[in-house]
Write a structure and sequence with these properties.
Pfam families: GBD_Hemicentin (PF23560), VWA_4 (PF25106). This protein has 14 helices and 33 strands. By secondary structure, the chain is α+β, with helices and mostly antiparallel strands.
Amino acid sequence: MKFLTILSLILILNVLNAFKIDSNKILTKKAIFQITAEIFRIPLVEYENAAELFSVAFGSIPSNLSSSQVVTTKPFEKSINEIDTNMFKFKFHSNDINYNWKMENINSSLEKLESIRDTFYVHAEKFNQDYMRAELAKMLVMHQDFYTNTNWLENGHSDEAAFLQDSSAPLVTGVNGASLNGKEEPDHPDHNKAQQLALLTSISLLKSIRTRIGLRKFKLLLGIEGGKTIAFNIDDTGSMSSMIKAAKEHAIMIGLSYSGSRNPPQKYMLQSFNDPTIGELIISSDISVIEKEINKLVATGGGDTPELCLSGLIEVINHLEDNSYAEIFVYTDAPAKDTWLMDELKDLVSKKLPRISFLLNMVPTRASATQAYDLIKEFSNGDVLYVTPTNIKSSVDFLIAKADVSSEQLLQLKNLKRGEIYNFSVDPTIDELRISIDARDFVFVLKNPDGVAVSPTVITDLVHFKMFKVKSPKSGTWSLNVQSFNSIGKMKLEGSTSIAFDFKFVAEINSDLIDGLELKGQLPLNTRIGAIVNVFGSDASKPKVNYLEILKENGELIERISLQKYDTSKFYAKSFLTPSSDFVVKLIATDETGNSYQRMVNDVFHVTTLTAKTGLRSIRNDVYSINFEINNLSGNEKKIKMKVEICDDFSMDDFYKERQFVVYEFDYFSDVVILKKKSSNSDLCNAKLIFSDQDTGNVYFTKVVDMNYLEW
C-alpha cells in the first residue's frame, strides 16, 4: 500500500509538471511568434501556427513559381521544437531548487540565471546554435516561472521585473521565492496576470538577445533566416578541359535559378579543387560575383588521376552554420584522393546538414572510383549523376526540384525486383509527386488509386538516371509495377507537401515524461531504444502517426512498431530493440477522414557492434581531459589503435598521441587523454580521436571533440 501511495504521488507530480511545461511551451511559442512577426513587419496579432504566420509575411504561392521557391517553415518549427525539448529537460531534470525560485531568498536563483545568460552569450560569440537554444530554453523557463513561483504579484507589482534581464538593475525589496500558491492553475485569480507578465518578459528577453547578438544571428537561432546557402565545388585540373565549360555554365544556371526565387540564398560559395591544392574559398551574397569567379576558372595542371575533392568539401562545410540545409554541387571527372577525411566529413555533415550532389563526367560502371561519392551521397541525402558536356544541362530541373524545401520522402527502395508491384500512399496535402529512378533502361507502369495507368512528365533523362513528376496526384494508394531495367535498381518517391514529419531515435524512454537523449550516428546492436516523431506544418493537427516500420533497404518488413500519442503533433515509442542489420524507417499515419499518410526517413540507419562516446572536462584553468569509452557488443575481441590530433594551441605527452589497446568480447575500455593549453590567449579548437583496427588500419570511427564545450 505504501508503494502504491508513493507511485500515485509520483504520477500526480508528473501530471502537474506536464501541465506546467505545456504552459511554458505555449508562452514561448507566443513570444517567438510575436518577435518573428515584428521582424517580418506584419501585424502583431496572435497567429494560429507557423504556416499562417509565414503566409501573411510572404503571401500565397504564385501559380508561376515552383514549390521549391516557397519560403519554408520547417527550420523555424524545428527550432521551436528544440527549444521546447530543452525546456522539458531543464524543468524535469534539474534537481537544484534555485532554478525554480523555490528558495525564499531569490538571490541564489538570480545568480543561476545570470550564469545561464553568460553561458548563452559565450556560445553566441561563435554561434554554437545547439548550445544557444539549450541556454535560451533555461532562461525562458526561469523568466516565466518567476511570476508564478514568487510573491511578485502579491506585493502589488504589475510590471515586468527588470532585474531578471539586467543584473545591474536594482533588486526590488520584499520579493521572495517559494510562493507556490497555485498561480499556475487556470482558476487562480492571479493566473492571467502571471501569464501576461510571463509572456511580456519572454518577448523582452528575446528582444534583448536580438539587440545584443544582431539580427542575422538571431534569425538563424530561430530558424527564420532567408534562403539557404548554395555552394559549388569545381574540379579545375587539366583532365576537366573537355568538361569545364559545360560545368561552369551548369553552375551558373543553378545559381541564377536560386537567385531569382522568392526566397533567394543568403550567400553563395565557390571552391575549386585539384591536386595538390584547393583554391581560395569565395563567399558572396551576390550571385553576379560568383558568376564572375566561376567564369575565371581554367582547367589546367594536375598529376595522377585522383583529386582533393573531400578537402574542398570540408573547406566549404566549415563555413556553414549548423543546420544549414545548404545545397552543395560538386563537378569532377576523377575519384577522390583524400578519402581518409571521410569520417571528418561525415561528422561535419551531421552537424551542418548540407545536401551534396555530384555531377560526374565518369563511366558509371567504375564502382571503385566512385565509392566515396556514393557514400557521401547516402549520408548527405544527395545524388550522384553521371553527365557529359552535352547532357549536363538536363539535370538542372531535377536538382532544383531535389532542393524543394517542401519535399518529403514517401518511399525509397534499393535492389528492386523485376515484376514486383510497389504500393505507396499519396495523401491530400501532396500537390506534386516525383519519381527518381537510378537504373538503366527502366520500364514501369504507374497506376493511380482508380487503377488507371498514368504517364508522368519527364524532368531529367540521363543514361542511368531519370526523374518524372505527376502534378496534383489523386490521394489514395498508388502502385508502381517494375517491368524491366538493367544494372542495380534504386527508386525514390517524393512529394511536395505542407506537412513534414521529423523523426529521431532516442535512448529508451523509461517514464511518462516523453523525452530522451537523441541517438546519432551508428546504432548499437540489439539495444533497447525509443523513437519520437514530431509533425510540422499548416495541417499538422490532422494526421495521427500510428506506426513506424523498420524495413530492409529493399522494402522487406523487419518489424512494425506501434506509436503512442503525446499531443496533437508528437508521437513516440518507448522501447524496442535495434535490428541486427542496417535498416530504413517508414512512418504510417491517418487522419480523421481515413486518409493515409506515408513518409520514409531519409537516412539509412547503420547498426554496429562497436560504439564510442567522449566527454570533455576541465581539470584546472589550462588542463583538460577528454574521457572516452569504447563498447564492444560482439563476440570477438577488437584490437584498437587510437590516434589523437589537436591544434598547435594545445600540447600533450607522447603517451596520449597514439595508443593501442584491446576491447574484449562484450566488454568495454575507458580512459582519458590529458591536454594542456599552451597560453591563456590560445584559441580553443577541435580535437580528433581516430579509432582504427590495429591489424588492417581500417578506421572504425572518428570522434570530434569541440574544446569549447565542457561537461562541468
